[in-house]
Amino acid sequence: MSSTPSTHTPLLQVQGLSAGYGLVQVLHDITLEVREAEFLALVGSNGAGKTTLLRVLSGLLPSQSGRITWAGADIQGHTPDQIFRQGIVQVPEGRQLFPRMSVQDNLLMGAYRRADTAAIRTDLEQVYAQFPRMAERRRQLAGSMSGGEQQMCAMARALMARPRLLLVDEMSLGLAPIIVDQLMESLATIRDQGVTVLLVEQDIHLALAAADRAYVLETGHIVQEGPAGQLIEDPELRRAYLGV
Fold first, then answer.
1. Is residue 179 located within the same domain as residue 124?
2. Rounded Cα distance, 140 and 219, in Å
């Protein structure tokens, strides 16, 4: 497990949040905080409401009640573009790349709101240094790469937006374990560079082994929270999710 971050300043706070789709309520009274420069995991089984919460945080889904504050300011009701501009950037489930565009063009799409051309070039080279496979594939069509390479591309594209908070949705889905391990190492490096990471993940053991803290979501409710190292040793959690 990675080391505990040195600061506990709340960067994002969610208080009493409820949300859903039409008459179907998915999230019930969610309260959590994301601290500056930490690796936070939100774990739970399929259908627990994890992706719904990310959609609310990204402005893609309105909440029914509750409050969301970012760096101390209320961002309730902000549009996805307004939230993106403030540094909350999502790596979506399924990658959602532009398959007929080159890898490099996909990466540059992450910087489409930026006008600092020289800094964009510098960031592109830094991203290539962090993801050497993307440098090798820079002129290849994104849709022709493997699933693991596409996930790397999606993460690299998000970094081109210079996020303060990186939301990562179900990164391991459908990928070989060796690729997942490489991606988890990349997330730890990103956190070490000062970017706060919120990972939503079904593979609870994987997430808890890498994160600083975690919340456990069941049927739209937060049922446990704490340091990841303590949660991974919790007997009830291990029986429920790890089968041990």
1. no
2. 41
Q: Phi/psi zone of residue 51: left (φ > 0), alpha (ψ -120 to 50 degrees), beta?
A: alpha
Please, what sign has the CA dihedral across residues 113, 117, 119, 124?
positive
Q: By CB neighbour count within 10 A (0-12 exposed, 13-18 middle, 19+ buried), where does 44 fall?
A: buried
Residue 145 belongs to domain spanning: 98-160
Report the share of the chain in percent with pLDDT over 90. 82
Looking at the structure, tell me whether residues 74 and 49 fall in a common domain: yes
131 and 155 share one domain: yes
Q: What is the pLDDT of residues 99-156, one digit of tens each?
A: 999 999 999 999 998 889 999 999 999 999 999 999 999 999 999 999 999 999 999 9
In a shared domain, residues 33 and 103: no
CA 69 – CA 99 distance, rounded (Å): 35
Q: Pull the structure tokens for residue 94.
A: 């399924």
Q: Is residue 93 part of a domain?
A: no
Tell me if 47 sits within 8 A of 22, measured CB to CB. no
DSSP 3-state of 2: coil
189 in the same domain as 117 = no
Q: pLDDT-derived band of residue 11, with 50, 70 and 90 as boundaries?
A: very high
